[in-house]
Design a protein that fits this description.
It is a single chain. The chain is α/β, with parallel strands linked by helices. It has one domain (4-216): TIM Barrel, CATH 3.20.20.70. The chain is 34% helix and 19% strand. The chain contains 8 helices and 10 strands. The strands form 2 sheets. The protein has an 8-stranded parallel beta barrel with strand order 1-2-3-4-5-6-7-8, surrounded by 5 helices. It is globular, with a radius of gyration of 16 Å. The two termini are 16 Å apart.
Amino acid sequence: MRTRLKICCIGNEEEAALAVRHGADALGLVGAMPSGPGVIDDDLIGRIARDLPAGVWAFLLTQERRAQAIADHVLRCGVSTVQVVNHVDPSELALLRSKLPYVRLVQVIHVEGQEALDLLAGYEPHVHAFLLDSGSPTATVPLLGGTGRVHDWEVSAAFVRRSNRPVFLAGGLDADNVAEAIRRVQPFGLDVCSGVRTAGRLDPVKLQAYVAQAARKAP
C-alpha cells in the first residue's frame, strides 16, 4: 500500500498548489497556536481548502480543547478534517463526533516516551486516525507541532502495530530519513513541515527529493 503524504504548514495558495503538484494527498493548515511555524488566519484556511482538487484533503490544525470550540473552528474554516493537536479529554472527542458526524477527526499523540502508548485505547473509539508527533504539550510554552525533531520510532512502530486506525508519522522527517522512517514505523501516512522548507518557505527542490525518497523507501 502506498504511504500517503501530508504536507503541513501551508502558508498560502501558491504553496498549496506546489504541494498538490508534487503529489500531496493532504495539506495541513495551521490555525492559531501558542508556538511553532505555519500559522495562518481562518479566512485563508477556508480559501485554500475550498480550492483544493478532489482527492486532496485539507486538515485544519486546531489547538482548541473543548468540543464546541473545535466545532466552531471547523465551521469557520469549512473543512471536513480536523487535527486536534492537544491531548484533550476523550469525552470531548465523543461529543465532537455527535456535533459534527461528517467531519474526520485526527488526534495528535505527542511521543515523549512509552507513555504515548497508554493514550491509544482512550482515543481510538472516537477518532478516524492518529498522527504521531514530537511536541511537548505540557511545556511552559506548549510545543504542538513543527518542532523539526525526531522522536522514538520504536514507540511509534509499537503504536502503529496496536492501532486499529490509520496512523500518520510526523516529527523531523526529511529526504534523508523518510525512507528509513517508512521501513521502521510502517505508517499509513507521513506528515512533514520543516523538512521541506528553506527560510520558512516551501522549497520545491527539497519537496521533490522528499517525495522521491518516500516513494523509494528503504531496503
